[in-house]
């Protein structure tokens, strides 16, 4: 086990550029990434958490107090992923930094070889008793998740009950049940969806063309004071819902003539979603 006086790798060097590149790429990953489980407002990149935890858990080979046994085991493990290592301590340090930078890649986060090497290095540094990583403000759980990935014990807590639910599912339920949990969630989710659709059907009646609305956008309205008009005009700053290049959506205003029954869902002035090519009907005085 490394002595407390021995410097950790993070105290002397860190592959910032490589880890930053992998952390930035994580924002575009939408399949299989834990961030898709729940959109947490301050989720830390897994790449940065995984890399920094390793750099804090491993000793600096160039420190004179670094155990010789760790260096030996590291030289046995690292060639599996970084190639041949030269005999100097500085070479071993660079090999560790390269491994940390490479392992920050999401594509390698579940690679069996990289997992075995990372856990072997942590075990070589801390002995048979796995180190404990404590995160009292865990939020979405990035730090404790990566601690478990590296073979550590993890303790996570948060004041927010939503965060606690995310932590329980991410750190306890998924590792315990594996793919069977996903199948059960799909089954229960389908039952809830069917029950909700049946219960809410009368609140979302289909349009004449058969399309069924999925949401209503409510806005305050003012009545046109022009003689013979009386149309209700929605006070909406913009009719655009989305302006992405491949997903442009706007609202089309359906104007009432002032004689409709506002309590009748089929006889009401609504804001309906339309494509940007659709013409927006504006209220005009008659």
Describe the fold and architecture.
By secondary structure, the protein is an alpha+beta fold. The strands form 3 sheets. It has a 3-stranded antiparallel sheet with strand order 5-6-7, with no helix packed on it. It is 40% helix and 10% strand. Strand 3 and strand 4 form a beta hairpin.
Ordered list of secondary-structure elements with their pairings:
Layout: H1 16-25, H2 46-57, H3 68-77, H4 79-82, H5 89-103, H6 112-126, E1 132-135, H7 142-149, E2 153-156, H8 161-177, H9 179-200, E3 221-223, E4 232-234, E5 240-244, E6 247-253, E7 271-274
Parallel strand pairs: 1-2
Antiparallel strand pairs: 3-4, 5-6, 6-7
Any key phrases for this structure?
286 residues; 2 domains; two-stranded parallel sheet; 9 helices; 10% strand
